[in-house]
Amino acid sequence: MCGIVGYIGEKKAQPILINGLLALEYRGYDSAGIATIEDNKIQVKKDKGRVNNLYNLEGIQDLNGTIGIAHTRWATHGKPSMENAHPHMDNSNTFAVVHNGIIENYHELRDFLMQNGYTFLSETDTEVIPNLIHYHFEHNVLENNDKFLYAVKSAVNQLKGSYAIEVISSLYPDRIVVVRKDSPLVIGKSNGENYIASDIPAILPYTKDFYFLDDNEFAVIYQNKTEFYDASLVKHNKAIKNIDWDANAAGKDGFEDYMLKEIFEQPTAIRETVGSRFHLGEKCTFEDLNLSKEYLQNIHRIYIVACGTAMNAGLVGKPVFEKLCKIPVEVNIASEFRYQDPLIDENTLCIYISQSGETADTIAALKLAKAKNAKTIAISNVIGSSITREADYSIYTHAGPEIAVASTKAYTSQVVLVTMLAIYFAEQLDRCDTNTIEELKENILDLPTKVETLLQNVNEIKRFAKKVYTQKDMFFLGRGNDYSVALEGSLKLKEISYIHSEAYAAGELKHGPIALIENGVTVIGIITNPDLVEKSISNLQEVITRGARTLVITNQSLPNTHFDFVINIPETHPLLSPILSIIPLQLLAYYISKNKGLDVDKPRNLAKSVTVE
Ligand code: M6R
Q: How far is the CA of 495 from the centre of ligand 1 (A)?
């Protein structure tokens, strides 16, 4: 999705803005642009294509302004083109705007502006914003220092939809005005300079001190100070947050791609997520969760709500909660949940999982539960993200920045954290025997080493990837937890290899999908549940009989079978097996994508955080 960067200080803004855009490339985009102010004149450079393209545009090196805004655009309204790229200017070239989000009523606003003599150069929804600002600036009787901010506010009052907006004006070259609603924006504070970004990694090399803008909040950012205003432009103070991410963690660290680096970071990510939350023989602690035993006893239903990989992590959490806490759990897709009428009351607990904490559907689903008086817990990787500010309680995975579009270390850390949350509840509720809990804890503590072992043996997976990368279709089969992993493995494969793949509960195959199995089709089976080994083998036998080529991921000793490839993974508690069985599937997707010569980190059509509906 679109990315925003901004800078104001003493340095030349252009290289800082370009570097920020490069750091945001992972979000997915199709055009890029920057605007700076020099000698009270706004200079804009923009084009379709990559940031490198922008960097090579004629005249870009001559932009010497020390204030600027920049953007990577992921096309929604209008094709990728120079005209549609941001920044957009008003007709008088007084205001330049970059915008993330969607202005839903832009047709109506465009008509209004056209009736007032404005013309448009692009097909975008965004271009109405600088012109509306200009309109209000001209019609505003204020003659003071605040006129710029008031004009932005009046324009924003007319917008429907979601937005994070940066505005500069040739008449006010000492400030950047920003505002957001349902789209993230952070301000990084440094010595004598300030930075703005839609995502922390863009400005992480310069500061660790961030202000997280709230919905409907305005900020006016100067070189040496930032002023915050509420929706009525009443000024207020805002607390700064220190984000302890290592700037190098957002680099590739010698790996060919971010995705590979992040796959290999999983042992550390799991260790950090477990952190000091539990020790053997002691109860698990979640200091940030202030839930009474009485409240926990009265929970009669848990909803886990999320999108994509985060939802797949929720699926793995369901049996853990049900087994340890004896509370029924439903796992829901956020974009569905938000438009249903889920049975929610004050005894329903809603848990939202989101790596970025900015996924529009997940945030909307959270607001729905709050409106119905349910308690909400956010599980996120990003401190201060929108979802964590909306939820009643927030707990964090400590996976470090995840840059590749395909989520890997976030998934395994989410599964670990959801499992620990269930253990914490079970200990408070006393609904599960201590031995089971202690066994689970021991197994969780052993996970990082087991993942390390798995990552030392990637050759077999590489070999299999080489054999199958030209395939058009693949199938993933599993039962119980292995089915949840099949869903995640299949999602990874389609995202980055563009191979059509389907995941099925192995027993469901005979009810339709087996019709698709023919000579040479690749079927991947996951077999980790000791109670279901024979059943799963039978299902795979059925596809072998019909000519399928098979890869099996297992921690069981399987009888002599006719599988083409078998990847053995370490044993663990059955509730935790997804954390190990997903690793070969992440690697498989990665190596298939590499064999096909694709851009692993930035797959086509996808964005890292989906901040629009
Ligand atoms: O940031 P979130 O965890 O809320 O993102 C949810 C999904 O968009 C995300 O997991 C997506 O499915 C990934 N690209 C999967 O690899």
A: 11
pLDDT value at 2 more than 90 = no
The pLDDT mean for the chain works out to: 92
pLDDT in tens, 19-39: 999 988 776 678 999 999 999
Shared domain for 205 and 353, answered yes or no, is no
In angstroms, the Cα distances linking 98 to 14, 89, 166, 217, 426 are 15, 9, 5, 17, 48
* DSSP codes joined into one string, 118-154: ---SSS-STTHHHHHHHHHHHH----STTHHHHHHHH
Atom of ligand 1 nearest to the CA of 407: 16
420 located within any domain? yes
Sign of CA dihedral 129, 135, 136, 137: positive
Using the 8-state DSSP alphabet, how is residue 213 labeled? P
Ligand 1 centroid–CA 408 distance in Å is 10
Count of domains for the chain: 3
Alpha carbon of 28 to ligand 1 centroid (Å):
13
Query: Which positions are catalytic?
Result: 2, 608
The answer to whether residues 608 and 576 touch, using CB atoms and an 8 Å cutoff, is no
CATH code assigned at 235: 3.60.20.10
**Residues 235 and 214 sit within 8 Å (Cβ to Cβ):** no
Residues with CB under 6 A from ligand 1: 307-310, 354-356, 359, 362, 405-407, 495, 609-610
| Confidence class for position 290, pLDDT limits 50, 70, 90 | confident
Residue to substitute in 1, 262, 305, 307 for testing ligand 1 pocket (most ligand atoms within 8 angstroms of CB): 307
Q: Does residue 360 sit in the same domain as residue 217?
A: no
Is the pLDDT at 484 greater than 90? The verdict is yes
Q: Is 201 in the same domain as 304? A: no
The CA 311 to ligand 1 mean position distance, Å, reads 8
Q: Is the pLDDT confidence value at 580 over 90?
A: yes
Gap between the Cα atoms of 28 and 44, Å rounded: 22
**Residue 605 falls within a domain, yes or no?**
no
Dihedrals phi, psi of 291, to nearest 5 degrees: -105, 125
For residue 147, list its beta bridge partners: none
Domain identity same for 555 and 409: no
In this prediction, residue 253 carries a pLDDT of: 75
Quick: pLDDT tens for 188-219. 999 999 999 998 888 988 999 999 999 899 99
Tell which one of 407, 490, 608, 610 to mutate to probe ligand 1, the residue whose CB is within 8 A of the most ligand atoms.
407
Q: What is the pLDDT of residue 143?
A: 67
Q: Is the pLDDT of residue 611 over 90?
A: no
Q: Residue 492 maps to which CATH number?
A: 3.40.50.10490
Tell me, yes or no, whether 448 and 465 share the same domain. no
Range of the domain at 107: 3-244
The percent of residues above 70 in pLDDT, for the chain, comes to 98
Residue 123 lies in a domain: yes
CB 574 within 8 A of CB 440: no
State yes or no: pLDDT of 167 exceeds 70: yes
Domain-located, residue 613: no
